[in-house]
Amino acid sequence: MSANYKVKVNKDFEAILSENDISTTDIIKTPDSKFHIINDNQSYLSEILESDFNNKKYTVKVNSNTYEVDISNSLDMMISEMGFSIGASKQVNSIKSPMPGLIIDIQVEVGQTVKEDDYLLVLEAMKMENIITSPREGTIKSIAVTKGDAVDKGKLLIEFE
């Protein structure tokens, strides 16, 4: 199986490149950290102005024109086809009780803005206090429990806007 790459240029043009497409392109690095490219008998002078290797995003100058380039490999494309986002954090909109227990403290109010890892409430289970923290930044939409409530596993505790 040959590798394919999806190249998106300036967020409005997409192309799928195969290993064969890439191998038939002559690319020579020049001493001044630029590149001379020959493809289909056309000559191009290029330079990478900015690179974000982890996110596969580059700013490239080709023959005096500047382009924003995003590159996805075969794995990235497969993950996207499955409906997942690459590099995106999970958006948690509600917190449910991880186990049965008793709510012994609530530190937030409806409408309050919280940051990731902020202390939200304490759930006592099997004689242990479990501090429930915020999984993300956001605003508290609703609190479905009160201090002293007994909760079952999976019970809604807090919702985010």
UniProtKB/TrEMBL annotation:
PROSITE patterns: BIOTIN, BIOTINYL_LIPOYL. Keywords: Biotin. Pfam families: Biotin_lipoyl. The keyword Magnesium does not apply. The keyword Disulfide bond does not apply. InterPro entries: Biotin_BS, Biotin_Carboxyl_Carrier/Decarb, Biotin_lipoyl, Single_hybrid_motif. Residues 83-161 form the Lipoyl-binding domain. This is Acetyl-CoA carboxylase biotin carboxyl carrier protein subunit. It comes from Aquimarina rubra. The lineage of its organism: Bacteria, Pseudomonadati, Bacteroidota, Flavobacteriia, Flavobacteriales.
